[in-house]
Amino acid sequence: MSIRDTDAAALVMEATPRDFFDLLKPRVMSLVVFTALTGMYLAPGTLHPVLAAISLLAIAVGAGASGALNMGYDADIDAVMTRTAKRPVPAGRVSREAALGFGTMLSAGSVLLLGMTSNWLAATLLAITILFYVGVYTLYLKRRTPQNIVIGGAAGALPPVVGWAAVTGDVTWAPVILFAIIFLWTPAHFWALAILKKDDYARAGIPMLPVVASRTETRRQILIYAVLTAVSGVLPTLFGFASPFYAVVAAGLGAWMVTRALVLRSADEAGERRAATRLFAVSIVYLFALFGALIADHAVAGLLW
């Protein structure tokens, strides 16, 4: 065994279960689980509750596997950013090799589990999600283009499609619309965070939009995507799988997010951080509330009809 292998083994022995849990990016995983659950709940057809729970677990594990692989490959970036320097790999609690091995094992296991408990279309979509997030976003886009989060956002938008496919075995317009909502929501959400962490990204050499573009252009792009997000939020009603009451809620939530984007656009330099912080927080509430409204609307419709 080489010295490097010995050091890696020692790091694994020193790591705690919490360190490996942190590799899964549990806060990101919670959003993935909720949007995937929404896709499963809205889907026509039935899946045995036990199989549905196992399928949702598989999707969650797949999301966590993506996070572990991301942390393994991005250890050099994470080490120079204050926001991520305390993560298990850059902090030295878990070796890069262990993180990559852990992520690879969970990726394969989650895809196989989903295929065996639901169907192989859902499993294939989960595999595509993992491969896109790791291979396209992490290894290529993130370090090369300010559109990294726009294109890479497709990976984070796929969970409701996977959840839908797990129940139905197919993909229709409804899950595609759920995908579009998250896809269009992602840039405004992450660019608001990037404004707050601009110095971190610049130090790490990551060409996030606030790093490479002017404040005016960044704010303009955020506003454009906030408006597109608000418009996409009412599409479920227009396409017939949500009620007019949902559309009212979606419109209100969309107006809230657009208002915060307008405040950010008009903020002076001193008020920029506060406006970006509020937009970031509102964007999180927006997505959880919107998908929660879809679930509630579907539940009420089921009781009525």
What's the CATH class label of the largest domain?
Mainly Alpha
Rounded Rg: 20 Å
The helix/strand series, from N terminus to C terminus, equals HHHHHHHHHHHHHHHH
Specify the overall morphology.
flat
Structural class by helix and strand composition: mainly alpha
Report what the structure shows:
- The chain has helices at residues 3-14, 17-23, 26-42, 49-73, 75-78, 96-117, 120-141, 148-157, 159-168, 173-196, 198-204, 209-212, 215-233, 235-238, 244-266, 272-304.
- The chain starts with a helix and ends with a helix.
- With 305 residues, the chain is mainly α.
- The longest helix has 33 residues, at 272-304.
- It is flat and about 50 Å long.
- It contains 16 helices and no strands.
- It folds into two domains: 1-171, Tetracycline Repressor, domain 2; 172-305, Four Helix Bundle (Hemerythrin (Met), subunit A), CATH 1.20.120.
- α3 (26-42) runs parallel beside α9 and α9 (159-168) packs antiparallel against α10 (173-196).
- Its EC number is 2.5.1.141.
